[in-house]
Amino acid sequence: MSAQPEEASAPHAPAAAAQLRARLRSDRRAETWAPAFEQDWARALEDARHSYSLAPLTDVVRTWQARLAAAPAVDAFVASGCDDADGIALEDVLGARP
Fold first, then answer.
1. Model-level pTM?
2. How many angstroms separate the CA atoms of 31 and 16, rounded?
3. Would you call 77 helix, strand, or coil by DSSP?
């Protein structure tokens, strides 16, 4: 049995957040995505301060990494002109924003 808490496996959330910020600022969606990430990160940082856990920060990083990873597929789908009337909200797939 390990003496480390479970969330100790994610000590790199701040470094990952800095990398995400850089990627978001260079993305064509930077005008909307960068402020949304900053808001999510600030909220998660406050939650982490109160809970003494890195989990909220890690959740924000994972969510935004998934959004960035999915963006090219979404762009291709939209560019194809396919009907998206039966689509699923991203929140239903990734869960509610922290």
1. 0.70
2. 20
3. helix
Determine if residue 88 is left, alpha or beta; phi over 0 gives left, psi from -120 to 50 gives alpha, anything else beta.
beta
H-helix or E-strand spanning residue 40: helix 30-51
Digit-coded pLDDT (tens) for 11-40:
466 788 889 999 999 988 999 999 999 999
CA torsion 8-34-39-60 (nearest 10°) is -30
CA–CA distances in Å: residue 45 to residues 6, 38, 49, 90: 18, 10, 6, 23
> Does residue 60 contact residue 54 with C-beta atoms inside 8 Å?
no
Compute φ and ψ for 3, nearest 5 degrees: -85, -5
Higher pLDDT, 43 or 9: 43
Q: Where are the domains of the chain?
A: 52-79+88-98
pLDDT of residue 15: 84
CB 94 within 8 A of CB 50: no
| Among 1, 3, 9, 97, CA closest to 53 | 9
